[in-house]
Amino acid sequence: MRVLPFGDRAVLAEYDTLAETMDAFRALDAARPSGVQELVPAARTVLARIDPALISLRAAEQWLRDTQAIHAVTGISESVTIPVRYDGPDLAYTAEILGMSADELISRHSGAEWRCAFIGFAPGFAYLAGPIGLEVPRRATSRQAVPAGSVGLAGEFTGIYPRSSPGGWQLIGTTDAVLWDETREHPSTIAPGMTVRFEVLP
After folding, report:
1. I need a labelling partner for 66 at 20 to 30 A (CA). Which of 32, 93, 115, 138 fits?
2. DSSP string of 119-187?
3. What are the residue ranges in the chain where pLDDT is below 70?
């Protein structure tokens, strides 16, 4: 792990792998001291935003260094189930890339436990890390408009488009679940650290 300066109100911890970053975020979130206002995970980093009136940058840096990333954190992560119709336009092609049938892809995608690594790209767009063996490349050309609720695969992640936007993920399904609602206390349905399962709809 490397700790890097990030202005006068934040420090950035940099990790070697996605798994290490996810473990670190969970450990840091479970041991967050007063003055650490927000933790923002990404694929290889966790940003700690602080209130300098309550904790100094040096103390925040030391806290990051002292907090060990562990694989099991006391307590149970929140979880959410997303109902999905596996009717995406790229389902058959994605299954072909992976060397399996569409039914097997559906079974493996819906049978896996996914964990939100971080939020990015658009408000409420959760990058969900899951089992080995479902990694696929992005499309060679992005679509100009992907409908809201589209479920896709790209790289080592699966994700759900919370609103219509351009995108290059392989689309395998759709959901009516609302992923982002600004009227709620917590607008994003899925947050970093949460586990996600997909329920197959007819």
Report:
1. 115
2. E-SSTT-EEEE--TT--BPPPSS-EEEEPTTEEEEEBTEEEE-SS-EEE-SEEEEE-----B-TTSSS-
3. 68-77
Reported as a single tens digit per residue, the pLDDT across 55-64 is 999 999 889 8
In the chain, what are the domain boundaries? Answer: 2-66, 79-201
**What CATH number is given for 2-66 in this structure?**
3.30.1360.40
- 158-194: b (≥16 Cβ within 10 Å) or e: bbbbbeebebebbbbbbbebebbeeeeeeebbbbbbb
Please state whether the predicted TM-score (pTM) of the whole model is above 0.70: yes
